[in-house]
C-alpha cells in the first residue's frame, strides 16, 4: 500500500513466516553502496530507497543473540538464523577455521538429509552441495572426495538429531567464532589513524583494519554511559568518568545514523536479557517447551514403532531363513528316500537271483546223488571195473559234497540278502517318517511367517491413540522438563571436550596437506590466537 509505514510491511512479512521473535530482524536495503534498514515509524516510500522498480528489501537478522540456545525460542527463528549464519560463513563474511568448517558442514548435512544411511547416502551424494568456504578448499591439497569423506564421518555421528537440533548445534558452534554477529565500519580516530569499529551483542570494539579477529579495545554495553554523534563525529562516553571519552569520525553521516541504530538496538537487547522475561516471552517459552515435549514424545513413539518394525522384519527374515533350511532338509530327505527305494529294489532283485541259484544247485546235487545210486546199481563185476567204479563213486561223493557246501553257502547268502532287504525297507520307513515331520514343520513355519509378516503394517499394540496423548503440562512436568534440560546442558559440556579433541585431531590430520603460501592474513591471525590459547570471549575480557 502506498501509505504503508515500515512497520506495516515488516509485520506482514513476520505474519507470513509465523515469526513472533521480531526484535532480532529488520528489512535491509542498499543505497549508494551503504547498507540501511527500514524505519518502522516512517512511510516505506519516504525512505531514500532506489527509484527502480520493483523496490527490493532483504529480510535479515539485524541483531544477534549472545546465547542462541537460551534466547531463540521459536523453531522458525532458529532456522532463519541458521540460514543467514551459514551463508555468511560460506561467503567468508565470518572467518571460520578449516576444522570447524568441516564440523559445521556435517551439522548442515544432518539438518538437510536427516540420519545417515549408508545404503542411501552413497559416495558422491554431497558432490553438488556447497558446504565449505572456497578459502578452506583452496588451502589444502585435498580432492572433493576427501572432504566428503571427512564430513560424512562426522555426519554419521549425529544420528538421531532432528533438523532443529542440528541447526541449533550449528549456531552454538558458530556463535563462538570471532566475527559472528559483528557489524564492521571504517572509522578514523582524532589522530587520523584508520581503524575499524565493530558493533555486536556484547558491546563496541575497536580493531586494526588488518585484524578483524582481535579487538584492540572493547567497550561492553554495561560500561558505556552515553553514545552520541554530531555530523560525522561519534562520541563514546564510558560509565567510569576517569576513563577518557573516545571520539572518532566516520566517512558519511548516513553511516553514523546506522551505527547509532545498531548501538541502541543492541544495548536495549543487552539490558533486556538481564531482566525478567516479559509476559509474551514467557508465553512463547512455555509454548516452545510444550512443543518440544510433544515433538520428543512423537520422536519416541516413532522410534518405538521403527524398532518394532525392524524387530518384526528381523523375525520375518529369520523365519524365512528357517523355512528355506527346512525346505533344503526336505529335499535332502526326499533324495535319501529315493536312494533307499532304489537300494531296496536292487537288493530284492539280487536276493531273488541268489535264491534261484541255490535251487539250481540243490537240483544238481540231487541229480548227482541219483547218478551215484545208478552207478552203484550197475557196478561192473570185474575188479578193474570195480576199482574204476569205486574211484568214480569217490569222485561223485566229493562232487556231491562240494555241491552240498556250495548249496549251503548260497542259502546263507540268500538269508543275508533277505536281512539286508529288511533293513533297507526299515530305512525307507524311517525316511518317510522324517519327511512327514519336516512337512508338518514347514506348514507351521509358513503360518507363523504369514502372521509375523503382517505385523509391521498394523502394529495395533504399539500405536499411540491420539486421545491418550495429553499435553496438560503441570508443575511436576515443567520441573521434570527443566531437570532434563539441565541434564542436557551437563551432557553438552562433557561432549565439548570430546568435540575439541576431534577438531584438533582433524586439524593435525589435514595439516600435512596445507599449502602455506595460500594462507590468508585471517588464517595466520587465527593460528596465532589459537597458539596463545585466546578465544573470542577471553580476548574481549582482556581488552575491556
Automatic annotation (TrEMBL):
Domain FERM positions: 1-274
Comp. bias regions, Basic residues: 534-544
PROSITE patterns associated with the record: FERM_1, FERM_2, FERM_3
Location of the protein in the cell: Cell membrane
Membrane association type: Peripheral membrane protein
Residues reported in the UniProt entry to bind a 1,2-diacyl-sn-glycero-3-phospho-(1D-myo-inositol): 39-42, 257
Xref: CDD domains: FERM_B-lobe (cd14473), FERM_C_ERM (cd13194)
Record-level Gene Ontology MF annotations: actin binding
Keywords noted in UniProt: Cell membrane, Coiled coil, Membrane
Classification via SUPFAM superfamilies: Moesin tail domain (SSF48678), PH domain-like (SSF50729), Second domain of FERM (SSF47031), Ubiquitin-like (SSF54236)
Coiled-coil regions listed: 482-523
Chief location category: membrane
This protein's GO CC annotations: plasma membrane
Segments for region (Disordered): 410-429, 524-544
Protein name: MERL protein
Organism: Mohoua ochrocephala
Gene encoding the protein: Nf2_0
Amino acid at each position: 500500500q502506498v501509505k504503508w509505514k515500515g512497520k506495516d510491511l515488516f509485520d506482514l512479512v513476520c505474519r507470513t513466516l509465523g515469526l513472533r521473535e521480531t526484535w532480532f530482524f529488520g528489512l535491509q536495503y542498499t543505497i549508494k553502496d551503504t547498507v540501511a534498514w527500514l524505519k518502522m515509524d516512517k512511510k516505506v516510500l519516504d525512505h531514500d530507497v532506489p527509484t527502480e522498480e520493483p523496490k527490493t528489501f532483504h529480510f535479515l537478522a539485524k541483531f544477534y543473540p549472545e546465547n542462541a540456545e537460551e534466547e531463540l525460542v521459536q523453531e522458525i527463528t532458529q532456522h532463519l538464523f541458521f540460514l543467514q549464519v551459514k551463508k555468511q560463513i560460506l561467503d567468508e563474511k565470518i572467518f571460520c577455521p578449516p576444522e570447524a568448517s568441516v564440523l559445521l558442514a556435517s551439522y548442515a548435512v544432518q539438518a538437510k538429509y536427516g540420519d545417515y544411511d549408508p545404503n542411501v547416502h552413497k559416495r558422491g551424494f554431497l558432490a553438488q552441495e556447497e558446504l565449505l568456504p572456497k578459502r578452506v578448499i583452496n588451502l589444502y591439497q585435498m580432492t572433493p572426495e576427501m572432504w566428503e569423506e571427512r564430513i560424512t564421518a562426522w555426519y554419521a555421528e549425529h544420528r538421531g538429531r532432528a533438523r532443529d537440533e542440528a541447526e541449533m548445534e550449528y549456531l552454538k558452534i558458530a556463535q563462538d567464532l570471532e566475527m559472528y554477529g559483528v557489524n564492521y565500519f571504517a572509522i578514523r580516530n582524532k589522530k587520523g589513524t584508520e581503524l575499524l569499529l565493530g558493533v555486536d551483542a556484547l558491546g563496541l570494539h575497536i580493531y586494526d583494519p588488518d585484524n578483524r579477529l582481535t579487538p584492540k579495545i572493547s567497550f561492553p554495553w554495561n560500561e558505556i554511559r552515553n553514545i552520541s554523534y554530531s555530523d560525522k563525529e561519534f562520541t563514546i562516553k564510558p560509565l567510569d568518568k576517569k576513563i577518557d571519552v573516545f571520539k572518532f569520525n566516520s566517512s558519511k553521516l548516513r553511516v553514523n545514523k546506522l551505527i547509532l541504530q545498531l548501538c541502541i538496538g543492541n544495548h536495549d537487547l543487552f539490558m533486556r536479557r538481564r531482566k525478567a522475561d516479559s509476559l509474551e516471552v514467557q508465553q512463547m517459552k512455555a509454548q516452545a517447551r510444550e512443543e518440544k515435549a510433544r515433538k520428543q514424545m512423537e520422536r519416541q513413539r516413532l522410534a518405538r514403532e521403527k524398532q518394532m518394525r525392524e524387530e518384526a522384519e528381523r523375525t520375518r527374515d529369520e523365519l524365512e531363513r528357517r523355512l528355506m533350511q527346512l525346505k533344503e532338509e526336505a529335499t535332502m530327505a526326499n533324495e535319501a528316500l529315493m536312494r533307499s527305494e532304489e537300494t531296496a529294489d536292487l537288493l530284492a532283485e539280487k536276493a531273488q537271483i541268489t535264491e534261484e541259484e541255490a535251487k539250481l544247485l540243490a537240483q544238481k546235487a540231487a541229480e548227482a546223488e541219483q547218478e551215484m545210486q545208478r552207478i552203484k546199481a550197475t557196478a561192473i563185476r570185474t575188479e578193474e571195473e570195480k576199482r574204476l567204479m569205486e574211484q568214480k563213486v569217490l569222485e561223485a561223493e566229493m562232487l556231491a559234497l562240494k555241491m552240498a557246501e556250495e548249496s549251503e553257502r548260497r542259502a546263507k547268502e540268500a538269508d543275508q540278502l533277505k536281512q539286508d532287504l529288511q533293513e533297507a525297507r526299515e530305512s525307507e520307513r524311517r525316511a518317510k517318517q522324517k519327511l512327514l515331520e519336516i512337512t508338518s514343520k514347514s506348514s507351521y513355519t509358513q503360518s507363523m511367517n504369514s502372521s509375523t509378516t503382517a505385523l509391521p503394517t498394523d502394529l495395533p499394540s504399539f500405536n499411540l491413540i491420539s486421545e491418550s496423548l495429553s499435553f496438560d503440562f503441570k508443575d511436576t512436568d515443567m520441573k521434570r522438563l527443566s531437570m532434563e534440560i539441565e541434564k542436557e546442558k551437563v551432557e553438552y559440556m562433557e561432549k565439548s571436550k570430546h568435540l575439541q579433541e576431534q577438531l584438533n585431531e582433524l586439524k593435525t590430520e589435514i595439516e600435512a596437506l596445507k599449502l602455506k603460501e595460500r594462507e590468508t592474513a585471517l588464517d595466520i591471525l587465527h593460528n596465532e590466537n589459537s597458539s596463545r590459547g585466546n578465544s573470542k570471549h577471553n580476548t574481549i575480557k582482556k581488552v575491556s
